[in-house]
C-alpha cells in the first residue's frame, strides 16, 4: 500500500490523513538518517509555509488597494474583520472574512499533507500566529479569532460549531465582540476535547488540543486592552439596530417616479 496515506486506528473507525513524509520515505527508500531529515523538513515546512500564508492580511490589502487607506489607522487599529466592519462596512468585512477563511483552510490542509496530524496542528497554530504577527506588515496584524475559527472548521467541524455557538451566545447577550472572542478562545481547547470524545477519536487528539491551548492563550493576550476597556466600562458595543436602519435607509433612498409616469 502506498504510504501517502497515514492510517490511524480508533475504536470504531479508521482515520485516513495525507502524510507526504511517508510517501517520500517509501518511494525513495530512504535510510534512517535521510528519513529523519525528511521528517524534520516536513515539520519545518508545516511551520514556515503556514506562517508565510498567515502573514498575508486581507484587511490590510482590501483597505489599501480598494479604499486607499490603512485599516490600522482607524478604530481599534486592529487589522481584522470587526474593525473592517466598523470602518468600511459589511461588504469589506465579508470579503476580509472569506479571504481569511481561504488562507487558514489552505495552510491547515497543507500542514496535514506534509506531516499528518502534527503537521495539521502546527500549521493551524502558525497560520494564526502569522495573522497576528505578519512578516510583511512589521508584525502588526489581526487578533486571530476568525483565522483560528476556520482552522477548527477544517480540523473538526463539530468543535467549530461549539466555538461559534459560544461566540454568538456571548455576543448576543453582551454585544461585546471582544468578550465573545475571548470566551470562544477560552472554550477552544475544550471544544476539541468534547468533539473528539463525541466522535470517538480522543486518543489521536493530542496535537489538536496543544494547538488549541496555545491559540487560546494568544487570542486572550491579543484582547488584553479590550478586557481593560470592558472592566473600565469604556469598550464599545456592537449596535445591531444600526444595520437594520441602514437597510431601511437604502429602501427609502429610491426616487419616487413623477406623478404622470405611473402606469
Task: Please explain how this structure is put together.
With 263 residues, this protein is mainly alpha-helical. It has one domain. 68% of the residues lie in helices and 4% in strands. The protein contains eleven helices and two strands. Strands 1-2 form a two-stranded antiparallel sheet. A hairpin with a 4-residue loop joins strand 1 and strand 2. Helix 2 runs antiparallel to helix 5 and helix 6 packs antiparallel against helix 7. The longest helix has 43 residues. The protein is globular. The N and C termini lie far apart (74 Å).
Explain the layout of strands and helices.
Blueprint: E1 5-9, E2 14-18, H1 20-27, H2 32-54, H3 58-65, H4 81-88, H5 90-132, H6 145-155, H7 157-174, H8 177-198, H9 206-222, H10 224-231, H11 240-252
Antiparallel strand pairs: 1-2
Helix pairs in contact: 1-2, 2-5, 3-5, 4-5, 5-6, 5-9, 6-7, 7-8, 8-9
Tag the structure with descriptive keywords.
263 residues, mainly alpha, 68% helix, two-stranded antiparallel ribbon, 11 helices, 2 strands, disordered C terminus
